[in-house]
Specification:
Strand content of chain B: over 45%
Oligomer: heterodimer
Radius of gyration of chain A: 14 Å
Strand content of chain A: over 45%
Number of strands of chain A: 12
Number of helices of chain A: 0
Number of helices of chain B: 0
Helix content of chain A: under 10%
Shape of chain B: globular
Helix content of chain B: under 10%
Mean pLDDT of chain B: 92
Order of helices and strands of chain A: EEEEEEEEEEEE
Structural class of chain A: mainly beta
Low-confidence stretches of chain A: none
Structural class of chain B: mainly beta
Largest sheet of chain A: 6 strands, mixed
Distance between the termini of chain B: 37 Å
Radius of gyration of chain B: 13 Å
Distance between the termini of chain A: 41 Å
Chain lengths: 114, 116
């Protein structure tokens, strides 16, 4: 079984400041790791994913995440946020084989203030 | 390419009724997954279909069912609606060929179901 814990339900930050959204996961099998973003009244959009290889993954919109196997974490970072980054962010895992059975965290609402 | 489309976008039903939601995946995609999103439970996996076969299933009661057609379009059905079924139902498609999450899932805008 897998579970995902997003450690912050809300993160307020000023525009142009850096931000980190934290995610820990637990799984009895190997998994792929994902970060998705959801803007109001829209579906989810993939920001980035970790499959294997380099533990630092770069995604769209200037976001990046670092996979830490020993701490079972996959934190999302952005060096300088914009007002348009205000949205809900979801960390997720899915098993390596057998198709999609994605397990999501509860989400972190990022609020960027001017 | 057109994205994932879901119909209808909004739906209001009363308790005890049944409802069918539709999802048209991106052309060429054979995997379709369904998720329920609520403020209390967050995003929960319902089921995944691949080539007309249910490949994975989440922990939902039997009132929730789905199917996939030969053109990869998928429907999900909820019978005997309860107030707690009010949610945003999201569909996602992928070109996944065989197992794993290496392919990207593309999400539709969702169908917002309100049960009165």
């Amino acid at each position: 079984a897998q579970s995902v814990t997003q450690l912050d339900s809300q993160v307020p930050v000023f525009e142009e400041a850096p931000v980190e959204l934290r995610c820990n996961y637990s799984s009895s099998v190997s998994v792929y790791l994902f970060w998705y973003v959801q803007y109001p009244n829209q579906g989810l959009q993939l920001l980035l994913k970790y499959l294997s290889g380099s533990t630092l993954v770069k995604g769209i919109n200037g976001f990046e995440a670092e996979f830490n196997k020993s701490q079972t974490s996959f934190h999302l970072r952005k060096p300088s946020v914009h007002i348009s980054d205000t949205a809900e962010y979801f960390c997720a895992v899915s098993p390596l084989t057998g198709g999609f059975k994605t397990i999501f965290g509860a989400g972190t609402r990022l609020f960027v203030k001017a | 390419k057109a994205g994932v489309t879901q119909t209808p976008r909004y739906l209001i039903k009363t308790r005890g009724q049944q409802v069918t939601l539709s999802c048209s995946p991106i052309s060429g995609h054979r995997s379709v997954s369904w998720y329920q999103q609520t403020p209390g439970q967050g995003l929960q996996f319902l089921f995944e279909y691949f080539s007309e076969t249910q490949r994975n299933k989440g922990n939902f009661p039997g009132r929730f069912s789905g199917r996939q057609f030969s053109n990869s379009r998928s429907e999900m059905n909820v019978s005997t609606l309860e107030l707690g079924d009010s949610a945003l139902y999201l569909c996602a498609s992928s070109s996944l060929q065989a197992g794993g999450g290496t392919d990207t899932q593309y999400f539709g805008p969702g169908t917002r179901l309100t049960v009165l």
